[in-house]
């Protein structure tokens, strides 16, 4: 998947499961946003879990991209949620008021995920 200079932002996709698992790692900043959008836009109508356990940095551009994807998924009849939020990123989500919006589980969990 796409990698960018700096702290090597990386996107790994596990598409054969429900929900689709998207694993982010590295610095999620302005340079990484287009890669995330390109990867997730075609999946908007599906259930998506965005695993951020290995995200080392999140700026306002990355936060905005996550918010946009969650909105886009909901409008397309899918669902996206951020999982495994590291402490530094958790602080950003809490301060911005986006924590509940981004980590909201689907109303109808996938079979086996209850």
Brief sketch in words of this structure:
The chain has 114 residues and is an alpha/beta fold. The protein contains 4 helices and 4 strands. It has one domain: 2-Layer Sandwich (Transcription Regulator spoIIAA).
What would you say this structure looks like, in words?
This protein is α/β, with parallel strands linked by helices. The protein has a single domain (about 10-105), classed as Transcription Regulator spoIIAA. Helix content is about 35%, strand content about 25%. The chain has helices spanning about 35-40, 60-75, 85-95, 100-105; strands at about 10-15, 20-30, 45-60, 80-85. It has a four-stranded mixed beta sheet with strand order 1-2-3-4, with helices on both faces. Helix 1 (about 35-40) packs parallel to helix 2. The radius of gyration is 13 Å and the shape is globular.
CATH architecture: 2-Layer Sandwich
Q: Mean pLDDT, as a whole number?
A: 89
* Class of secondary structure makeup: alpha/beta
Distance between the termini: 30 Å
* Strand numbers in spatial order across the main sheet: 1-2-3-4
Major sheet characteristics: 4 strands, mixed
Strand elements, count: 4
CATH homologous superfamily annotation: STAS domain
Radius of gyration: 13 Å
| Low-pLDDT residue spans | 1-5
Oligomeric grouping of the chains:
single chain
Order of helices and strands: EEHEHEHH
Strand content: 25-35%
Total of domains: 1
CATH topology: Transcription Regulator spoIIAA
Principal-axes geometry comes out as globular
Number of helices: 4
